[in-house]
């Protein structure tokens, strides 16, 4: 199904018209400037004008009572006419909350803004969007304000979407650094709303200090399995920890759940420099998280602001989110791609706790490690003291005192210049597919004119030209090199080329990459193909997804054979992509990716398109797809995936066969020391 296009931005500065009127160190970080600096930064990057502006409205009392009681609503309404003394008294009835005469109005606008976003997406007016709101919502409950939250914007939105659009499967992803217990309470018995949250927990020592925030809170009654908590028991969690939690927990379950709408409790206090979170994830991490969610629900993603208290970190992360929603290519993720021991322990525990509820986890280790042996505890302490995912984390992990915060400002200033600058503005895929008429491809795909003969001669003469004798081979080599050249020169982001001699073309293409100065090229070959490549120096990581047992080739760090049998229609390739290929690819951090579709491929069109979509987070989305035997369906589907025109319909989830899972586990055990993003259990660590 064709996907809608366009990104909504919902913001009204009236939501900055309330603030803390007295001294309260618990609440003084929740300031109006949070919205102002985020919106200013969006303007600074010219993102506001690229979005579709949707006006806010007030949430109605009926909508608010989808989650809250009328009594609570009356209490909040009554604060409008209170003086400071009365406001303080009401505020003291709740945990970490303050009221202001304008709070009620702003809280209704926050609800209304969220529902406007849901309507814009569900009506197809836009594909996705962001609502910049305050007060936040994910802590508030039926009868209580909590943690700066008054009305639970995202929970109301989920109930609203169920009723108004008859949705049966809504995914809520809460990447705020605090546990959105308010959302958990509303939906813990509801199998139609899957709630996923990570949060700073420190074994129940961090606010809101709840036993039910731990990984074993899996949901109640019919809702069992539909509540996923990933507790972080240490601070300093960073990009690799968050990505690992996506690869090994959220994404496999989310693809199995097949959501119809994604709501994001988009809090940025999980980012670097935030005084509450004390984590180290850098702004571009949120681009990658957003990108993965956009591959679900046909791209219907509604991001709703929750927390985020370091103004610079918050603003940059908001911009990274919106830029990705607009389908800009993603900046390369920074930092060492190795989740820490504590993160892997949490990931393993939540996977074990959910083993009974999800097919993608059915072959998991049964026992969650409630407490590691003392030896591994000591290792964990040691490991976390000497390393951190970011060497800069030590300097900039958020603390409240201002000079630390200023240090974060400086770090972010230089960091954003590095990652923002090189992203190519052009996003269209360029294709040279002689047998396929251009009009069959998405409009965003330019069909390149062939490279001119002279240019090609010089290029081909650089290699041993006797390989390319007949005219046909020369033409297809020309196709591949012409498209690759445009990608290397950043004239386009990605491309497709048809080649009758895919293996020779790929060898030439790789050589051209290295002549161009690239350091690492991920080459994924689907089907049977013999590439004579030098794989010892790490400049190529070759992953061969094929049917036949590769007897002679043992898996080495840079040459991985994944034997995969995709039977017709059952698209069970998810666990291979999510649990294996992506973690390895992110560990490798390629400068460019080449996907080669050879003869008798063992993957269906959907699986290949899924792979193409999900890999776009890497190498600034620079992907070259070389297709040997051109099937129009395959070319169209891949072209759509590359140009972001649509997320291919991955069909109903079908769990992989046991031998497929066991193949993944075998490879993971074999390679997780080399490619550390594969880690999802601590047992082999010790
Ligand atoms: C939206 C949000 O999740 O960012 N709210 C965070 C509230 C933090 C409250 N801290 C209380 C500290 C008690 N010592
Ligand atoms: Zn928070």
Summarize, please:
By secondary structure, the chain is of the alpha/beta class. It has 21 helices and 16 strands. The relative contact order is 0.09.
What integer is the average pLDDT? 87
Oligomer: single chain
Hetero ligands? 1-({4-[(3-aminopropyl)amino]butyl}amino)ethane-1,1-diol, zinc ion
Rg on CA atoms, Å: 25 Å
Number of strands: 16
Class derived from helix and strand content: alpha/beta
Distance between the amino and carboxyl termini: 48 Å
Q: How many structurally independent domains?
A: 2
Total of DSSP H or I helical runs spanning 4+ residues? 21
CATH fourth-tier homologous superfamily of the largest domain: Histone deacetylase domain
Strand content: 5-15%
Label the overall shape: globular
CATH fold-type name of the largest domain: Arginase, Chain A
* CATH secondary-structure class of the largest domain: Alpha Beta
What's the architecture of the largest domain, going by CATH?
3-Layer(aba) Sandwich
Helical amount? 25-40%
Question: Strand order, biggest sheet?
Answer: 2-1-3-8-7-4-5-6
């Amino acid at each position: 199904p064709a996907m809608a296009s366009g990104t909504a931005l919902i913001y009204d500065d009236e939501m900055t018209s309330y603030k803390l009127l007295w001294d309260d160190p618990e609440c003084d970080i929740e300031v109006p400037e949070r919205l102002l600096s985020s919106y200013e930064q969006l303007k600074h990057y010219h993102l506001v004008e690229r979005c579709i502006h949707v006006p806010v409205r007030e949430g109605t009392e009926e909508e608010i009572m989808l989650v809250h009681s009328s009594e609570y609503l009356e209490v909040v309404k009554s604060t409008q006419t209170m003086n400071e003394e009365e406001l303080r008294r009401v505020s003291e009835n709740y945990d970490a909350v303050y009221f202001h005469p304008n709070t009620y109005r702003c809280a209704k606008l926050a609800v209304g803004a969220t529902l406007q976003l849901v309507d814009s997406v569900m009506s197809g007016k836009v594909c996705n969007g962001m609502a910049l709101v305050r007060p936040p919502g994910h802590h508030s409950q039926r009868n209580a304000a909590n943690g700066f939250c008054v009305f639970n914007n995202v929970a109301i939105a989920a109930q609203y979407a169920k009723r108004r659009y008859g949705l049966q499967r809504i995914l809520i992803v809460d990447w705020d650094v605090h546990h959105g217990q308010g959302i958990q309470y509303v939906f813990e018995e509801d199998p139609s709303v899957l709630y996923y949250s990570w949060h700073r927990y420190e074994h129940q020592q961090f606010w809101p200090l709840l036993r039910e925030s731990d990984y074993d809170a899996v949901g109640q009654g019919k809702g069992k399995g539909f509540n996923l908590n990933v507790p972080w028991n240490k601070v300093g969690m960073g990009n690799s920890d968050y990505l690992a939690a996506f690869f090994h927990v959220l994404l496999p379950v989310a693809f199995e759940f097949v959501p119809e709408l994604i709501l994001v409790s988009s809090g940025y206090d999980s980012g670097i420099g935030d005084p509450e979170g004390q984590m180290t994830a850098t702004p571009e991490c949120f681009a990658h998280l957003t990108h993965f969610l956009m591959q679900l629900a046909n791209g219907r993603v509604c991001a709703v602001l929750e927390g985020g208290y370091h103004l610079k970190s918050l603003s940059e992360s908001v911009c990274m989110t919106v830029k990705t929603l607009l389908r800009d290519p993603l900046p390369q993720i920074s930092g060492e791609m190795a989740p820490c021991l504590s993160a892997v322990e949490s990931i393993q525990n939540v996977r074990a706790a959910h083993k009974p509820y999800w097919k993608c986890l059915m072959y998991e280790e049964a026992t969650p490690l409630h407490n590691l042996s003392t030896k591994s505890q000591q290792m964990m302490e040691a490991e976390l003291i000497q390393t951190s995912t970011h060497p800069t984390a030590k300097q900039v992990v958020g603390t409240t005192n201002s000079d630390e915060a200023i240090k974060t400002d400086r770090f972010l200033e230089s960091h954003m210049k590095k990652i923002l600058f090189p992203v190519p503005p052009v996003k269209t895929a360029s294709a040279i597919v002689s047998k396929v008429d251009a009009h069959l491809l998405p409009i965003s795909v330019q069909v390149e004119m062939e490279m001119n003969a002279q240019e090609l001669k010089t290029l081909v003469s650089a290699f041993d030209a006797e390989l390319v004798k007949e005219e046909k081979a020369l033409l297809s080599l020309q196709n591949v090199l012409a498209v690759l050249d445009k990608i290397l020169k950043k004239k386009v982001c990605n491309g497709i080329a048809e080649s009758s001699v895919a293996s020779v073309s790929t060898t030439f293409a790789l050589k051209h990459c290295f002549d161009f100065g690239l350091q690492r090229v991920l080459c994924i070959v689907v089907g049977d193909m013999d590439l004579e490549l030098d794989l010892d120096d790490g400049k190529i990581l070759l992953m061969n997804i094929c049917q036949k047992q590769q007897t002679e080739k043992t898996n080495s760090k840079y040459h991985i054979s994944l034997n995969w049998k995709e039977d017709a229609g059952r698209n069970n390739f998810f666990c291979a992509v999510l649990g294996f290929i992506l973690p390895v690819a992110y560990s490798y951090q390629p400068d460019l990716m080449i996907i080669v579709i050879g003869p008798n491929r063992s993957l269906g069109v959907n699986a290949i398109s899924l792979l193409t979509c999900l890999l776009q987070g890497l190498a600034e989305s620079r992907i070259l797809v070389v297709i040997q035997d051109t099937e129009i369906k395959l070319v169209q589907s891949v072209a759509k995936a590359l140009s972001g025109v649509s997320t291919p319909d991955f069909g109903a989830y079908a769990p992989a066969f046991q031998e497929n899972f066991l193949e993944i586990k075998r490879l993971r055990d074999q390679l997780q020391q080399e490619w550390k993003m594969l880690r999802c259990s601590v047992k082999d660590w010790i």
